[in-house]
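Reopening this ticket.

The earlier resolution said the output was attached, but the attachment link was broken on my side. Pasting everything inline this time so it's all in one place.
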Amino acid sequence: MAAPLPPRTDDWWRDAVIYQVYPRSFADGDGDGTGDLAGVRARLSHLAELGVDAVWFTPWYLSPLVDGGYDVADYRTIDPAFGTLAEAEKLIAEARELGIRTIVDIVPNHVSDQHPWFRAALAAGPGSPERELFHFRPGRGTNGELPPNDWPSQFSGATWTRVPDGEWYLHLFTPEQPDLNWDHPAVRREHEEILRFWFERGVAGVRIDSAALLTKDPGLRDFVEGVDPHPYIDQDEIHDIYRSWRAIADEYGGVFVGEVWLPDAERFARYLRPDELHTAFNFSFLTCPWDAGCLRRAIDATLAEHAPVGAPATWVLCNHDVTRTVTRYGRADTGFDFATKRFGTPTDLQLGTRRARAAALLTLALPGSVYLYQGEELGLPEADIPLDRIQDPMHFRSGGTDPGRDGCRVPLPWEAEARWYGFGAGDEPWLPQPDDWAPYAVDRQAAAPDSMLALYKEALRQRRSGAGFGDGPLTWLPVGEDVLAFARPQGLLCVVNLSDVPAVLPEHERLLLASGPLDAEGRLPADTAVWLRARSSDLAT
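Inline output:
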């Protein structure tokens, strides 16, 4: 294994490449069919060789796993399916020795219905202090038979569930995920202690799930489409919470990344003020179709909304909730929208793979940080999960119309000829792996110089050691229609051809990296990207 690059000591998060690990599906160390921390520790060399700066773990805490771990029962205990707290501490330390920082996931909007607080609230009854930690309310109607309000769910279905004593409790997600009352000082105090708990164990940062949902309208007023402010999204009071969190992070040199879905650029930027969050996910780019005009507008808008507060942009093509890039880019509709996901959507995987390779170079050349979801470096497609194996609550709460998110969460293939593709040596994986995934396995791609894995390794090597990458300015270049071309510092050029015909490359000194071969005339084929180094004479002018 190549020696890891030394860890960075500056504001590393401003242009880091951060790898997202979904623990259930990364690697199974104990053979029970579920990925775990032992599996991650055994495969850390893959991440070191890939060249990432940090690893973000989706929730690994004690959980009934109703929503993939985003229903947390205890933040200070690792779920036994994944390992122990001692193993987590070893993993954090071992990754750090390889120059890889650790980011953990916090889910502050809600907890599991198995959390001790919620179980105590159910037992205590109406009007009790225990229920004040949540949003319990009497119902409307003659006998309280109607929910307290009409708020829409973040998943399909209802947002209120009635308990036997007649009261209702709020859950913006599933009934097993009751929302916390962030007006209560005990809720705020508990989460501040949770942050300290993990920072003291060596984590470098925290990803905040559903970061704009914590505070609610005090009267829980009804939702009216188009009427601001929204009763539970982006309430002004939420910023006091993040200012208190930032003070804690600054004590430890930690960073935050928020999951903030907001269409308003000005309100989005408020979360990134110097005394709040360090970064936030960029969903406009993630959901953007494979279209030059749309992508350029998304890039320009992202950079513009971050500029006033001096925060770096983040770029991501896929995550554990979103259709995999190879599949999405191979469809007629190359954008992403939860509301339009359906079974049986036709996909051209060859086309999607070509576009995903180009998108990788585009993303890694943009200013700011990049998040890479596990398996993207292998070019994994979305898997079709048999109906009787689907586990995602989004599928069931949609009445079966939404295929859910399991297709992007299938356990990784490590060894082409091994049982379960080397994911584990024992039981069948918790989600079935497709029968045709051998070509995607890490060991097979590691031996192929033109593989997706080889492309990512070289791209990350150049990004970390080459000039012009990461944080800094971007200048668009005048090129043909449906071609994106921009210059970065020190003569770095990126050109992406989204048209149907070959494109002529701008003048350059040398070709650094290409997502696919140029044509016989040295032109850039359709759905292909390159990194170039400008001529010295051009730099002088």
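Reporter confirms the inline version is readable. Residues 349-365 form the longest helix (17 residues). Residues 382 and 407 are 5 Å apart (CA to CA).
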